[in-house]
Amino acid sequence: MSREMTLSQAVIGSSSTARKVMMVLAGSAFIAVAAQISVPMLPVPMTLQTLAILMVGFAYGSRLGAATLLVYLAEGAMGLPVFANGMNGLAFAGPTAGFLLGFVAMAWAAGFAAERGLARGVVGTALSALLISAALYVPGVAWPALIAGGFGTEAGWVAQDAGFYWTWFVAPFLLGDAVKAAIAALLVAGGWKALSR
To answer: Does the residue 98 lie in any domain?
Structure first.
């Protein structure tokens, strides 16, 4: 399958290194702000962090999207309060560390879908976003279930049964993921439609 132009390439053309650096910094700031926005929803409030990650990936492409997330994680590791609820690098030792690391793959996958032309229309983008969001649960659950204990982490969320992780790490967030997939699809498709005009 041939490589398609991404939304950012369509808007600003091929970028110089300086422009790419600015895009990465702007993208990481966008994700940091979105991570602090919590929308009341049942069963749990929905942050806009993963929506922002999907948007960065769909707009930037695989490599620039992944680079943006690596910078975002580095900002958190340096102590900046860029993660959800104002958390910083301490989150790498907590129950959500697997999700944080999975964010890089999430942005890369969204960018890959965009580059392959799978994320232009509403349906293709929504399906891509849903599949990518579902894949994020693999590292998200693997960390507390299988990996954290090996690093000597002792907490109530380490090495529990599958039902525990379904109840606390997956099920409460599925509706939010579906909503964010729909929003991402509408934004991406709307961006392409605006450009075609």
So the answer is: yes
pLDDT digits (tens, 9 = 90+) for 129-163: 999 999 999 999 999 999 999 988 899 999 999 99
Supply the DSSP string of 98-158, one letter for each residue: HHHHHHHHHHHHHHHHHHTT-SSSHHHHHHHHHHHHHHTHHHHHHIIIIIGGGGT--STTS
| Mean pLDDT for all residues in the chain | 93
Domain count across the chain? 1
CA nearest to 129, candidates 52, 29, 35, 60: 52
CATH at 125: 1.10.1760.20
Report the alpha-carbon distance of residue 97 to residue 83 in Å, rounded: 11
What the block records as the tokens of 171 is: 């099920």
The full length of the chain comes to 197
Domain carrying residue 188: 7-196
2 occurs within a structural domain: no
| pTM of the predicted model as reported, rounded to 2 decimal places | 0.94
How many Å is the Cα radius of gyration of the chain?
17
Would you say residue 175 lies in a domain? yes
3-class secondary structure, 4: coil
Residue 35 lies inside a defined structural domain of this protein: yes
Bond from prior residue into 45 cis (ω within 30 degrees of 0): no
Reduced to 3 states (helix: H, G, I; strand: E, B; else coil), residue 183 is helix
